[in-house]
Design a protein that fits this description.
9-stranded mixed sheet, Rossmann fold, 3-stranded parallel sheet, P-loop_NTPase, 38% helix, alpha/beta
């Protein structure tokens, strides 16, 4: 999936590559989802075609109704029985998000499947929430309900009657707008939920609680008698803490896809989690890696000068993952700048490989050191294609999902950040890796690979011991970062950038793991 079209590709524990929306659910709800929690048209059609080829339909004509719609219903019902929150037994409620817009031709089979599901499970076991935008037109500032009225009419024509309206708006929804929506959409005023703009996203659960959304939904599902008391004290503290933070830390994000920040959504969220834990706000300075390159100085000198000014003004540098050779030289320049000037550096996936190539060129004087991804014929292969990978098929041929990394020494910074663990399980998504044949030379020159896979041949974590914080990880720690539980490498980067890392490590060894103070 192109980052410019879809945003980031979120990776699950089981190796599923999914849309960033599913990542938002996992991060916000703190659950562990699987590839089966992501239903796509392609998956449904593929499963139906496979059944037809096996003869499961006994030669009957395969149609959208009932075969495709039945496959969708069966998938939903099967997934709904699998717990995702660590508890045993099936869940009480299964949340289904039907993406797109009402009326889209792509979603028609799914709408019909949900209509049939509504009919089969009964109205006490089905709650439909329609999300709609309430725009404000012109200088008059009137909240317009017509788009919602029309979308609800379209939805009702398709056989789905919404029980709730979740109305997005810039400002709180006015009472007369609610009354109009209730009258023309046949939804009680109490069931019209307003999700207006708030200072930070952690206010949203509190906003819904204040409107008694949870009680209304439980009532619709006939679950009020078994529901537990809602405890949002931690959310309240987190939201208020975020609002009251005044100090910030500047982070240079040197990437390939900075034109669409959703390409690095999980990285941004992980930085936010780490900064909040340190009573800071992240101030992310986006730098297009290609603007740092020498060619940019000739073609676009203003962009080149601005990129370098931004890089030099940041307190730390982060190079995230990516594919292809565009901007690679700029990333190497950023890695070299951070290494030579003792600026905290975190390289993720490609960012780690970049730091290895730069070190090989600058310190080992291997001028042609490169990755096979960028130069398949390079004589000095520092980064190589994985032996088990496919060079003909791109889809699902990478090293994907949760893999174990063993720390080679308990004295490294990364192990201490991971609560002095002997190993860590993190998610991967890559085709290329550090060449184990050159590791000895790199370590002799000072670059230490402190984390490896269980075979000892795959390099997972690197550190530069004489540097305040110079770390590269082959995995993607951002996918498991959570509000209130920041990812260790991101936390370490922010702590190092603000001069708190050493004190934090000492407090952690004394048993005070989360005692972080702004200095």
């Amino acid at each position: 999936m192109s980052p410019f079209e879809h945003g980031e590709v979120f990776v699950l524990d089981d190796g599923g590559e999914v849309d960033l929306d599913l990542g938002n659910y996992e991060r916000f709800l703190d659950v562990t989802l699987t590839k089966d929690n992501n239903i796509t048209t392609g998956k449904i059609y593929q499963s139906v075609l496979e059944k037809e080829r096996k003869g499961d339909y006994l030669g009957k004509t395969v149609q959208v109704v009932p075969h495709i719609t039945d496959a969708i219903k069966d998938w939903i019902e099967a997934v709904s029985l699998v717990p995702v929150d660590g508890e045993e037994g099936p869940a009480d409620v299964c949340v289904i998000e039907l993406g797109g817009t009402v009326g889209d031709i792509e979603s028609m089979p799914f709408v019909e499947a949900l209509r049939q599901l509504y009919f089969s499970v009964g109205q006490d076991n089905f709650c439909l929430i329609h999300v709609s935008l309430i725009p404000v037109l012109g200088v008059v500032g009137e909240q317009k309900t017509k788009p919602t009225q029309h979308s609800v009419r379209e939805l009702r024509a398709l056989g789905l009657i919404p029980h709730f309206l979740a109305c997005r708006s810039a400002q709180p929804l006015l009472e007369n707008a609610k009354q109009k929506l209730s009258q023309f959409c046949h939804v009680p005023v109490a069931n019209i939920l307003n999700i207006h703009d708030v200072p930070n996203i952690w206010h949203i659960p509190l906003l819904l609680q204040n409107q008694s959304a949870h009680d209304a939904i439980l009532k619709q599902l006939d679950l009020l008698s078994v529901a537990r008391h809602v405890d949002l004290e931690e959310w309240t503290r987190r939201a208020e803490t975020s609002d009251n933070i005044t100090k910030s830390v500047s982070i240079a994000m040197v990437g390939k896809y900075v034109g669409l920040t959703d390409s690095y959504l999980s990285v941004v969220k992980a930085l936010m989690h780490a900064c909040i834990a340190c009573s800071l706000k992240p101030s992310i300075d986006w730098i297009a890696a290609s603007d740092l390159e020498d060619d940019s100085a000739k073609l676009n000198p203003e962009a080149h000068a601005a990129a370098w000014k931004t890089l030099r003004g940041a307190t730390c540098v982060l190079v995230p993952g990516g594919f292809g050779d565009r901007g690679v030289k700029g990333m190497m320049l950023a890695a070299r700048y951070a290494r030579e000037n003792s600026v905290p550096y975190l390289g993720i996936c490609l960012g780690m490989q970049i730091s290895v190539i730069e070190f090989a060129r600058s310190v080992l004087h291997l001028e042609k050191a490169n990755s096979e991804e960028f130069d398949p014929q390079t004589p000095e292969r520092v980064v190589i294609f994985m032996p088990e990978g496919s060079k003909t098929h791109m889809g699902s041929t990478m090293r994907l999902g949760s893999r174990r990394t063993l720390f080679q020494t308990p004295d490294c910074i990364t192990a201490k950040l991971y609560n002095n663990s002997e190993y860590v399980d993190e998610r991967h998504r890559h085709r290329y890796e550090v060449n184990p044949e050159i590791v000895g030379s790199l370590e002799e020159a000072g670059l230490k690979f402190v984390g490896r896979d269980e075979s000892g041949k795959r390099m997972e974590i690197l550190e530069l011991p004489d540097h305040p914080f110079y770390i590269g990880v082959q995995f993607h720690p951002e996918f498991k970062s959570r509000p209130g539980r920041p990812s260790a490498p991101f936390l370490g980067l922010v702590l190092a950038a603000t001069g708190q890392l050493e004190a934090y490590v000492k407090r952690q060894q004394n048993g005070s793991v989360y005692a972080i103070h702004q200095q």
